[in-house]
Amino acid sequence: MTSTERVELHGAAATTLMTLFLHRLDARARRPILGDPYAEDVYDRIDHDVHGLWQATGDATAIVCRAAVLDRWTREFLAGDPDGQVLHLGCGLDSRPLRVGAPPSCRWVDVDQPEVIDARTRLYDLPAHVVQVAGSLTGDDWWDAVDPERPTLAVAEGVFMYLPPRAVHATVERIASGTPRGEIAFDAVAPWTVAVTHWAPFFRALGTTFDWAWDPADFADRHPDLFARDDVSIYDEVILREPRIWLRPLLATAGLLPALQDSMRLHRFTVGP
Ligand SMILES: C[S@@+](CC[C@H](N)C(=O)[O-])C[C@H]1O[C@@H](n2cnc3c(N)ncnc32)[C@H](O)[C@@H]1O
Asked: Which residue has the higher pLDDT, 190 or 54?
């Protein structure tokens, strides 16, 4: 029998169990979208309080579409800069460095809160060039692990919405000014979703809410040196890839509403020359 690991996560840290659960759901599907080959084994080895994870299944397609696009952008960066650096911010229990085959020539830095990194190191057998950094993005310590000379991709999936706005902007600014060139890729939610997290039973049970939402004018104003390269609606990805094909026309009709179309978007910005 495989040994299990006791994992105690609360608040925003516990949301990584939700994404892992949804990756596992996708991996078990007849035609997976992400096809995370690690999710099932890792999830099944976790001994934890499930926190009603089943309540998140309605978001499964969106969550795995989000991961699939960010995997593609990560592979593209590493193909162009195999000696580059990937800052995997709020990495949670995601297998991305293994999934994208991070080459030994690169520097890969996984950053998350100490309790998450503790669980991550117990659940994954990660190679030496995939460095684990326990620290909060609201503080400074994690930055010591960053190589300021390497071209850098910062990939923050499902993270920035949990941070206070000033921490999001400080993190982006730090990467933009502290690395020679590269990219910043992240997802951002629409402002109306912040209110929803204050009453939705799933978030109440976890004890967390969204704090930061996308405001394009504010972001452009604060980060004038970043060049917007991609802006992808996750909702559009869901319409294209929803496994229940009969549901796609209904989703497409609902997607005419800007509130749904913009509920979560993926952004990729270029840093430097
Ligand atoms: C929804 S999970 C996403 C995990 C992973 N990126 C994925 O997509 O599977 C959110 C993650 O953000 C992390 N997080 C939230 N606030 C953070 C902070 N202040 N510093 C570092 N990580 C944080 C949580 O611990 C959690 O692992």
From this structure: 190
- The CATH class that applies to domain 73-271 reads alpha beta
Which residue's CA lies nearest to atom 11 of ligand 1?
Answer: 90
Closest CA to 253 of 264, 268, 242: 242
Domain chopping of the chain, boundaries:
73-271
- Please name the residue whose Cα sits nearest to atom 13 of ligand 1: 90
pLDDT one-digit tens code per residue, 22-68: 999 999 999 999 999 999 999 999 988 765 777 777 788 999 999 99
Q: Is 225 exposed, middle or buried (0-12, 13-18, 19+ CB in 10 A)?
A: exposed
Best of 8, 16, 86 to mutate for ligand 1, by most ligand atoms within 8 A of CB?
16
Q: Which pLDDT belongs to residue 90?
A: 98
pLDDT digits (tens, 9 = 90+) for 210-220: 999 999 999 99
> How many Å is the Cα radius of gyration of the chain?
18
* Alpha carbon nearest to ligand 1 atom 4, residue: 92
Chain segment 191-237, per-residue pLDDT in tens: 999 999 999 988 888 899 999 999 999 999 999 999 999 999 999 99
How many CA atoms are closer than 13 Å to the CA of 113, on its beta-carbon side? 15
Distance between Cα 20 and ligand 1 center (Å)? 12
